[in-house]
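Dear colleagues,

As part of the handover before I leave the project, I'm documenting each prediction I ran so the next person doesn't have to rerun anything. This entry is a single chain, and its sequence is reproduced below.
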Amino acid sequence: MIKRIRGLTILPAMLLALSAQAQTMTPATINASGGSKELAGNTYGYSIGEMTLVHTVATPNLVVTQGILQPQEKALDISELALPSDALTVYPNPSDDIVYIQPKMEGSGALILTLMDITGRKLQEQKAVLTTGMEKQSMSLSSLAAGTYLLQAAFSRNNKSFVRNFKIQKLK
């Protein structure tokens, strides 16, 4: 009787051992190739070698899809040129309350100042027409929390745009 019980306990263990497999590691998916293309005003990035099963999570401001590259806005258009470093002075930086923007442009044009938070969300925008290209502008930071912000200055003249970004530090 004891031999029979021992045989019954060994039999399931043997069946379990025969059905067990060694753990295997498959290679991770890596982009083998890719690129981007512009369609209908949006730039779409694509990659080759991505997973076939995807999951999408969407909120009102963000769409994230696993394995698919999302459309992105153009940061700098071909008709936009970098503004020379001496063409604009932003001071004081860091600041408690107000920053001043002193343009040193050669001639008239339109100046658009856009203040954004660290995520790129637009917080303030000011537009000014510069008749001499030297008119000092000011931007209040009093309604903002202490932190780091991005100030984008875009100057347009004769169908050309010049852009420069500044990191602004708000103290109190």
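The CA atoms of residues 84 and 94 lie 21 Å apart. Confidence is low (pLDDT under 50) at residues 22-30.

All the best with the project,
I.
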